Amino acid sequence: MTDIATLMAALAPTEGVNPTHLKGVHVFRGSQYGARGPMCYSQGMLFVGQGKKRLYLDEQTFDYDSHNALVMTVPLPVECETFASPEEPVLVLMVDIDLVQLNHIIRLMDEHNQIPKDLNESRQSGYFVVPTTEEMDCSVFRLLQALQSPLEAKVMGEALVLELLYRLLESPNAAPLYALSLSHTRLSRVEKALSYIHRHYGESVEVDTLAGLVNMSPSAFHRCFKEVTASSPIQYLKKIRLTRAKELLQAQRLKVKDVATQVGYESSAQFSREFKRYFDQSPGDCARQ
Fold first, then answer.
1. Among candidates 6, 17, 62, which has minimal Cα distance to 42?
2. Tens-digit pLDDT profile for residues 40-87
3. Pairing with 259, which of 184, 233, 253, 285 sits 20 to 30 Å away (CA)?
4. Beta pairing partners, 95
């Protein structure tokens, strides 16, 4: 193991997502190969200490590993494949993006005339992959060191997360992060609509309502939404509902019809059909796992 992987392993004693002493920071451990399947990635930065993950989004495929960090500028439903084994588990540091922190750094960079001049709108997708640098690795290492201690995490953790975010903003692929902070960009408008969807997915959500929320025409909103998320608004909403339903079935052991209603389906039969099509298993089988 590298030093970074060793520190991640110490913070992730159990399979899956492990909390740390710092809010918004987790470490994932996976000790076996995971076949391609749907899941939802949160808005955040992901740094791999060991192993590899492959994402499938629309017709695109990309990997992130110890040499390439993944940044999700908005929460995105994707398909994921995990390359790991008991001898070499995949280890991933997951750091939520705090928009207050992001805005603070970008405001300081603007004061020092360090905002890139070529923030091409066409590059403002909901994610980007960036090759890790020595500076990024050092920032990750120091953050992982601090997370070993509750006191150090409390004293230094937030500053180290700020440093890590700054290192990403220095990368040539970081245009989407800047766009997220600027109110007039397509990405920031879509992000506002996505926040609304995640708060209200159990209710009736209309595309016209979302478009009006961000001051766009329905046609322009639909086009921009697809560019950022690789899904239409209705497809995105459906994936979020089904992902949340899977969490409820596995964690709370609720009845299928109750879960269907809770995530916004009027028909439990339609819910069951779409759930099986998306996850390749019935809601009942999922609940029994």
1. 17
2. 999 999 999 999 999 999 888 999 999 999 999 999 999 999 999 999
3. 233
4. 25, 45
The model's pLDDT over 178-218, given as tens digits with 9 standing for 90+, comes to 988 887 788 999 999 999 999 999 999 999 999 999 999 99
16 bridge partner residues: 29
Tokens of 46: 């992901």
- Token pair, residue 172, equals 């040539």
Tell me the two tokens of residue 35.
Answer: 């076949």
Closest CA to 187 of 198, 196, 175: 175
83 and 53 Cβ atoms separated by less than 8 Å: yes
Return the structure tokens found at 68: 């390439």
Only one residue has tokens 């409390």, namely 154
Q: Whole-model pTM?
A: 0.92
Q: Which stretch of DSSP H or E encloses residue 247?
A: helix 233-251
Q: What is the pLDDT of residues 132-146, one digit of tens each?
A: 999 999 999 999 999
Neighbours of 48 (CB within 10 A): 25
C-alpha pair distances (Å), 22 with each of 25, 76, 152, 156, 194: 6, 23, 10, 10, 25
